[in-house]
Design brief:
The chain is an alpha+beta fold. Helices cover 36% and strands 12% of the residues. The chain has 2 domains: 70-186, Roll (Flavocytochrome B2, Chain A, domain 1); 189-300, Roll (Flavocytochrome B2, Chain A, domain 1). The termini are far apart.
């Protein structure tokens, strides 16, 4: 076989067609690869990971691409407790929040990981607990309590000073990366409020940054509900990312059709979907709610 190929190669060289043949082969290979990438974009990136990001299977790796800041719900933050990830069979990162600022403390796993002295803090807001040097559950998950008592919080002057010292230590001495902001449950939007088309369009990632947020809201409408995908979906739905066209619109039809066509993204009509397409849409909503745990921030105006 190799001798036949050698003869063909020599023949092409002699005839002067070798260069054209090489160019043609490269063009065909490039065309096939490009089409395969376009066809598989939605399949490969259907956003079906279990609430993780590029660093979800281990500690902070300097070779990993730095993720943009994101918002966290308390339920999402619980995922990052350093325990073994059954999907990847590797330890999950260790995140914790101090006064609403979420740090990746994976490099301090010996302090905050499973079985370590401060494992209680992993996956939680722990500002009050750190300020009071407390290991009581009642001092966890209390962002509002991180203020002084005179401002409605739970800290006296020395405790507030201790909290500030912890923040300085984490950021400037331990150099733990800040990965986002924790939004308290009480500060989340009412999932039953009505969201107009105008409000939906405004929340496309370029709007006003709400107090305490790490990044502006990214609203995606699906099956009558509005999800804020800035809570973990910035790399999918942020400006310049694959699914940004779904932001600020009712994307139900485009999701059901697995379509990146702008015409589908701008058309909310799903009355003509077949059974398979309806199932696809339902799968997306399940992914949003259960796997990614994107918060529902309202309902679409009918």
């Amino acid at each position: 076989m190799s001798s036949v190929l050698a003869q063909v190669w020599e023949s092409l060289k002699t005839s002067g067609y070798l260069g054209y043949t090489a160019i043609l082969i490269c063009a065909l290979v490039g065309y096939a690869w490009t089409n395969s990438q376009q066809d598989s974009t939605l399949t490969k990136n259907q956003d079906t990971t279990n609430g993780t990001n590029a660093t979800s299977t281990g500690g902070s790796d300097s070779d990993d691409e730095v993720e943009p800041p994101r918002n966290f719900t308390s339920k999402q933050l619980l995922h990052y407790d350093g325990t073994q990830c059954p999907k990847f069979e590797e330890p999950k990162p260790v995140y914790l929040s101090v006064a609403g600022k979420v740090f990746d403390v994976s490099s301090g796993r010996e302090f905050y990981g499973p079985g370590a002295s401060y494992e209680l803090f992993a996956g939680h807001e722990c500002g009050v607990a750190l300020a009071k040097m407390s290991f009581e559950d009642t001092h966890l998950d209390d962002i509002a309590g991180c203020k002084m008592t005179t401002d409605g919080g739970k800290l006296n002057y020395s405790e507030k000073d201790a909290l500030d010292n912890w923040l300085t230590k984490f950021e400037h001495f331990k150099c733990y990366p800040v990965v986002g902001a924790l939004i308290a449950d009480g500060d989340m939007d009412d999932p039953d409020r009505i969201i107009t088309k105008e409000e939906l369009v405004k929340n496309n990632g370029t709007g006003v940054l709400p107090k305490g947020y790490a990044t502006a809201p990214l609203y995606v409408g699906a099956k009558g509900r509005v999800f804020d995908v800035s809570f973990g979906g910035v790399t999918f739905y942020g400006e310049g990312c694959p699914y940004h066209m779904f932001v600020g619109v009712d994307a139900s039809r485009a999701l059901a059709l697995m379509s990146l066509d702008k015409a589908d993204a701008s058309n909310p009509d799903i009355s003509d979907l077949n059974e398979r397409q309806t199932k696809t849409l339902n799968d997306w909503v399940t992914t949003f709610e259960e796997r990614k745990m994107y918060p529902v921030v309202g309902r679409l105006e009918e």
